């Protein structure tokens, strides 16, 4: 049902997905280095088999879940979403995955829980960026529970119908299309339900530049660069900038989540 | 013959003009790669970074010349103008890629220069180096006088420092590379303040010269 409600309109908007080559060679995955080409160069060392996800906090069924067990019985869908990086570039990605809401239902969210926290795997021996400590690891992110339950929010396991490339966050990553890309945490090994707003990596590093919400918002600039426009990856040397859309173009679907909130304060 | 003597003898026969040839050739080659999609899926950003980094590297190289001569007697003075002008060439390319290909509008450019401190100082470094590039010729040295010319060209010091800070300021997180450049620039500026004792035969004992 959600596919009809969200995936199809995305197609109908005439979004032209980037090529798999583009999507998998221009990445931010600091565990493998800070260069855009570093993840493609080094992520092959990532060990993803077996993959277990620790589910804890305010859930009815905590535990160490094998990836396949966590996903079994859930409907996998294709979603073609805009992907907007806080660095003011963007792509269109045809993700495959399950709605996070379905996973949350499976693990049983307790009534007091208000946030979902995520954690990325740390494999120092396989991750040169972790060894050189460019930022603190493990990378952590979080969503408010209503954001996490939103039908647009995906746990993606593939792109173009193929298993998720390692540099894009194999074997399973978050995709929150109306937020800056760094919210969409990669290679998830832990999901925690909590009643406290969880810490998030970039907010911890620089709270003035990166807020907890980090919704795509052309009217609120990042202190070091404008968010009013962006450049689609793949247009070559003479590609034109395009205006950035409020909530990355998903305002009709998600604006109500933030009704009454000052988005300049809650950036 | 010492290494220094050997290098000094070699520099007498090796001209400086290939630096321009290689520099502009490399600049054009990178642009060509970007044009053909060989700099990754985001060639504008790639070119911006490559040109900017090359400018900084060449500027650091110009800073090496004097201390190298002071401390090792290796003289590469002959190449410094070419290195400096080539650095300015890459800086100009860096600026033009940013202004024309990246931002694409005068209003965006002016807003960014005013509102983003790391761009403000990068632009300031560029502006500081314009008079130096313009006067990097023998006629200007004659017109300004050696002393005046040298004084003017001390502007390289703040310009390079601003360039290195610009690099540190624009990255996210704490990658090592920009800090290495900033450290190198600070060290190369600081070493100019260290007094070098000339051999007693050439200077009175205790005299301090640079």
TrEMBL record, chain A:
Domain Oxidoreductase molybdopterin-binding: 46-202
Source domain of life: Bacteria
PANTHER family hit by this protein: PROTEIN-METHIONINE-SULFOXIDE REDUCTASE (PTHR43032), PROTEIN-METHIONINE-SULFOXIDE REDUCTASE CATALYTIC SUBUNIT MSRP (PTHR43032:SF3)
Entry's family note: Belongs to the MsrP family.
Assembly notes: Heterodimer of a catalytic subunit (MsrP) and a heme-binding subunit (MsrQ).
NCBIfam families: PRK05363.1
The protein, known as: Protein-methionine-sulfoxide reductase catalytic subunit MsrP
From TrEMBL, chain B:
Domain Ferric oxidoreductase, residue spans: 52-163
GO cellular component, one term: plasma membrane
Keywords: Cell membrane, Electron transport, Flavoprotein, FMN, Heme, Iron, Membrane, Metal-binding, Transmembrane, Transmembrane helix, Transport
GO MF term (any one): metal ion binding
Domain of life: Bacteria
Cofactor(s) annotated in UniProt: heme b; FMN
Transmembrane domains' residue ranges: 12-32, 52-71, 83-101, 113-134, 155-172, 178-194
Annotated InterPro entries: Fe3_Rdtase_TM_dom, MsrQ-like
Main location class: membrane
The keyword DNA damage is assigned to this record: no
Localization in the cell: Cell membrane; Membrane
Cofactor note as given: Binds 1 heme b (iron(II)-protoporphyrin IX) group per subunit. Binds 1 FMN per subunit.
GO biological process, one term: protein repair
Pfam name, any one: Ferric_reduct
Membrane topology designation: Multi-pass membrane protein
Function (record text): Part of the MsrPQ system that repairs oxidized periplasmic proteins containing methionine sulfoxide residues (Met-O), using respiratory chain electrons. Thus protects these proteins from oxidative-stress damage caused by reactive species of oxygen and chlorine generated by the host defense mechanisms. MsrPQ is essential for the maintenance of envelope integrity under bleach stress, rescuing a wide series of structurally unrelated periplasmic proteins from methionine oxidation.
PANTHER family: PROTEIN-METHIONINE-SULFOXIDE REDUCTASE HEME-BINDING SUBUNIT MSRQ
Family stated for the protein in its record: Belongs to the MsrQ family.
Subunit structure: Heterodimer of a catalytic subunit (MsrP) and a heme-binding subunit (MsrQ).
Protein name as it appears in the record: Protein-methionine-sulfoxide reductase heme-binding subunit MsrQ
């Amino acid at each position: 049902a959600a596919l009809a409600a969200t995936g199809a309109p995305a197609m109908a908007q005439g979004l032209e997905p980037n090529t798999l080559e583009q999507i998998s060679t221009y990445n931010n995955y600091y565990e493998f280095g800070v260069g855009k080409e570093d993840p493609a160069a080094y992520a092959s060392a990532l060990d993803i088999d077996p993959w277990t996800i620790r589910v804890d906090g305010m859930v009815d069924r905590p535990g160490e879940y094998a990836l396949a067990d966590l996903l079994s019985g859930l409907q996998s869908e294709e979603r073609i979403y805009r992907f907007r990086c806080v660095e003011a570039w963007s792509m269109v990605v045809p993700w495959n995955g399950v709605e996070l809401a379905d996973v949350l239902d499976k693990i049983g969210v307790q009534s007091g829980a208000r946030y979902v926290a995520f954690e990325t795997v740390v494999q120092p021996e396989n991750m040169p960026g972790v060894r050189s400590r460019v930022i603190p690891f493990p990378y952590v992110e979080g969503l408010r529970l209503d954001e996490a339950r939103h039908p647009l929010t995906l746990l993606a396991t593939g792109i173009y119908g193929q298993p998720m490339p390692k540099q894009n966050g194999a074997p399973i990553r978050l995709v929150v299309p109306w937020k800056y890309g760094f919210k969409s945490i990669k290679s998830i090994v832990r999901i925690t339900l909590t009643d406290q707003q969880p810490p998030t990596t970039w907010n911890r590093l620089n709270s003035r530049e990166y807020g907890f919400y980090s919704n795509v918002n052309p009217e609120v600039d990042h202190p070091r660069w404008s968010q009013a426009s962006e450049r689609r990856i793949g247009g070559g040397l003479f590609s034109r900038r395009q205006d950035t859309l409020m909530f990355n173009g998903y305002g009709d679907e998600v604006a109500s989540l933030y009704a009454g909130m000052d988005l300049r304060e809650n950036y | 013959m010492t290494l220094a003597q050997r290098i000094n003898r070699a520099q007498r026969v090796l001209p400086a003009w290939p630096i321009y040839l290689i520099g502009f050739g490399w600049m054009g080659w990178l642009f060509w790669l970007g044009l053909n999609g060989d700099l990754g899926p985001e060639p504008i950003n790639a070119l911006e970074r490559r040109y900017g980094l090359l400018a900084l590297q060449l500027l650091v190289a110009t800073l090496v010349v004097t201390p190298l001569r002071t401390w090792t007697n290796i003289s590469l003075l002959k190449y410094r103008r070419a290195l400096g002008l080539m650095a300015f060439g890459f800086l100009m390319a860096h600026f033009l890629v940013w202004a024309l290909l990246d931002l694409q509008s005068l209003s965006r450019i002016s807003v960014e220069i005013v509102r983003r401190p790391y761009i403000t100082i990068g632009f300031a470094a560029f502006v500081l180096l314009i008079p130096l590039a313009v006067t990097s010729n023998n006629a200007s040295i004659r017109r300004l006088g050696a002393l005046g010319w040298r004084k003017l060209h001390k502007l390289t010091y703040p310009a390079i420092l601003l360039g290195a800070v610009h690099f540190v300021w624009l990255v996210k997180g704490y990658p090592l590379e920009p800090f290495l450049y900033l450290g190198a620039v600070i060290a190369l500026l600081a070493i100019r303040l260290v007094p070098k004792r000339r051999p007693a035969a050439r200077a009175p004992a205790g005299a301090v010269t640079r």
